[in-house]
Amino acid sequence: MSKPAKSARGDGKAAAGGVMNRVKVTVRLRPLSVKGESADNANCVQYDVNQKLLWVVPKDVTDKKNRRQFDFDGLVGPDSTQEDAFKAVLPTIEAVFDGVNGCVMCYGQTGSGKTYTLSMLSPNKPEGEGVMPRAFKHIFQHIAADNGTHEWKLSVQYVQIYMEHLLDLLNPNNEPALREESGTGVVYLQNAESVPVVSADDCLAAMVRGMSNRATSKTLMNAESSRSHAMYMLTVVRSGGPSCVVSTSSLFLVDLAGSERVKKSGVENTGMDEAISINVSLTALGRCIYAMADKRGKIKPPFRESKLTRLLQTALSGGGRTSLIVCCAQGDSDVQETNSSLEFAQQAMRVQVKEVRREQMDMNALTVHLQNTVDAFEDRTHAMHVDVWARVQGDVLSMQGALDESRELGAKLYNLNLLVKELERELPAAGTNGPVEHASVSDAKARLAQMRAQLKEALKERDEVTVMLPEIAAEYRELGGHAWHNGDTAKAQAFYEKALAAYLKCLGKDHPEVACSMGDLANVYCDLGRFDDALEMYQHAHRIHGSSYGPEHVDTAGDLASLGLVYSVQGKHKEALPLLKSAYAILSKSLEQDHPNVVQVRQFIEKSESLL
């Protein structure tokens, strides 16, 4: 046995902007029993399923040109099951779950088992179902397992290309046409029936309906030969979920017409025209595959040469995953067709396409998600505020009571001490060891010590509450930012005012965080047209930043710029210009010239100078 030839295999690899996916090829060998063949007259193919190797060995030992060796991504032997064929293309089918197009094509000569592999229906024997029915069930099982996390909308289209005419299999009265999206190169169907589906049964019903309208005819190679290329397109739109992303992808399931020599198929008249048309379109497909496999990139794939390649343009080059199932017979009489099919498959394995996820942000879902987040923050912060305020208020009342009681006890103790001293003067000094302390004085002292301990504990708890205030202030500031960016100025103002009050209480009036909080509130005041209030806030912030960081700091310059911008908006360009120039001199030293803040200040300087 000859040494295996160099493999064309290679897994997807990372590339700039995405993953490079190579076309994955699986060869399926038709069982001998299908055509009543035997090992005596059908032994031109030898294979090793485990090694995924296949040899074409013609019966005529002198026929060296047809003696070939191939290796592929997968090899499904003649005694395999439909499940084996399905598993070989499952990763391509699951591409739609990731917002990526998937394409499964069946290729081969007439009678080699393409339609059986792809679209076989077997209501009484589920194990006999082809790739398409299994794919439908698998997709809807995945949707069911999602448990409503996302919203799913699916629809199907089913068309055929018969003698270079595009026909709608779901509504033969339609006249579908191919169109291309401007700037994207994505080819799509226009005026073709699109049927919404909500279950695997709906998908199957559309498939059966379309297959009944598909063109077939009798040839020497197959009594029910499909004389057209058929493409079933399942479009999946997924929206919602935590990521708030809408992904749109399509699964292309393609049953290609049989590829064989006209002489061998025995067709004539209309059948001859059909065969010629089929071979022309398959030749165009082969040329596209050859051009895409050329690593030099010097050949442009001729997708426009046929309706088939035009329709497959998005599936093959549109940034998805593609799997090719090549069906082959094992008979000696089929050696040329088998070699031709395998050579096409080997060439297809060299095609690589960069994976593209077709996603866009779902702004409605994102808005709802952000609003829910803001509401949750607000509820949590409000609850925390109520709890902390109740504790602080209780502590204050407790401390006030303790102070009042302490003063009362102090006065009582003073009076008692006076009384003790008076008693000591009146009592005879003889026989005593020292001053006599009245019992009521001892009780008062003990009570005073207890009150002071309670007061100390209350002060400690108050200090612990005060430590939490920066976190509360930060929560308010974040909520204010969410509200402001969502256009809710009133809510932003309320949150920013609470944040500033909390920062002032825990950090004091000269802390940089207080200055930042003032800047937030000043921005809102500007939106409300309260420019004088905004100026006052920016001035306070500038004083704090200048004292904390120095006059040349970016934050200090930012406050100057804000003051200048407000004056400029008010039309006070004479006051604005020196502030803006001072800010620009500092910012341009620390930031890049194309930084948004630098650009904005420069533009306002130019505006003020032009108006003076």
From TrEMBL:
It comes from the Eukaryota. GO terms for biological process: microtubule-based movement; mitotic spindle organization; spindle elongation. GO terms for molecular function: ATP binding; microtubule binding; microtubule motor activity. The keyword Iron does not apply. InterPro entries: Kinesin-like_fam, Kinesin_motor_CS, Kinesin_motor_dom, Kinesin_motor_dom_sf, P-loop_NTPase, TPR-like_helical_dom_sf, TPR_rpt. The keyword ATP-binding applies. ATP binds at G108, Q109, T110, G111, S112, G113, K114, T115. One of its GO terms (cellular component) is microtubule associated complex. Keywords: ATP-binding, Coiled coil, Microtubule, Motor protein, Nucleotide-binding. Residues 22-351 form the Kinesin motor domain. Residues 441-468 form a coiled coil. SUPFAM superfamilies: P-loop containing nucleoside triphosphate hydrolases, TPR-like. Belongs to the TRAFAC class myosin-kinesin ATPase superfamily. Kinesin family. This is Kinesin-like protein. It comes from Diacronema lutheri (Unicellular marine alga). The lineage of its organism: Eukaryota, Haptista, Haptophyta, Pavlovophyceae, Pavlovales.
